[in-house]
Design brief:
Blueprint lengths: L13 E5 L7 H24 L3 H24 L3 E6 L4 E6 L5 E6 L5 E7 L3 E9 L2 E5 L5 H20 L8
Helix pairs in contact: 1-2
């Protein structure tokens, strides 16, 4: 096992963990569910008192569907990508929301970063291209975040292509 002071360990030029953005916190989720449930209860009770009792069940159904949709969103937020660049390797590890792992190790000397750019919206897709293969990365980032990530990754790849020209202290 290699320790932190192992002289054979390569310095890390770039490392990033990319995660999907979720704007609704757990407290926000609870508040939203309480408000939606309250509105649904008042609306359903109004229809129940007016004699339209079947509507009461449907008012609860919409809250249940909202709850299920938000739970799916939170489960999908468990996905992440880890990108690491050293002088001799570019490693991309993608972990799906179900825990399925895909990992690629590429030589940074042969890797190119390909972008699909929309004139109005900016970068839509990013790909690593190496030896005729394309690997999609940073799929859940927004256009501005993709642009920032692409610049940082390109700088790291240029540094890896220059070779060991600097001293790195961990």
């Amino acid at each position: 096992m290699a320790g932190d002071n192992d002289p054979t360990r390569e310095p890390t030029i770039f490392s990033a963990v990319l995660t999907p953005h979720r704007s609704l916190s757990r407290k926000g989720f609870l508040a939203l569910m309480l408000v939606a449930g309250g509105i649904s209860l008042v609306t359903g009770t109004t229809f129940l008192l007016a004699g339209a009792w079947p509507v009461f069940g449907f008012c609860g159904l919409d809250v249940l569907l909202l709850y299920c949709a938000l739970q799916v969103s939170y489960r999908r937020a468990r996905a992440y990508e880890q990108v690491t660049v050293t002088p001799s390797e570019l490693t991309v590890r993608q972990v799906s929301h179900r825990g399925r792992v895909s990992e690629w190790t590429l030589n940074p000397l042969w890797v190119q970063l390909d972008r699909v750019v929309h004139a109005e919206f900016g970068i839509e897709r990013l790909f690593l291209v190496s030896r005729g293969q394309r690997f999609a990365i940073a799929g859940f980032l927004g256009p501005d975040e993709k642009a920032s990530f692409a610049l940082a990754l390109l700088a790291a790849l240029r540094e890896a292509k220059r070779g060991p020209t600097r001293t790195v202290f961990d």
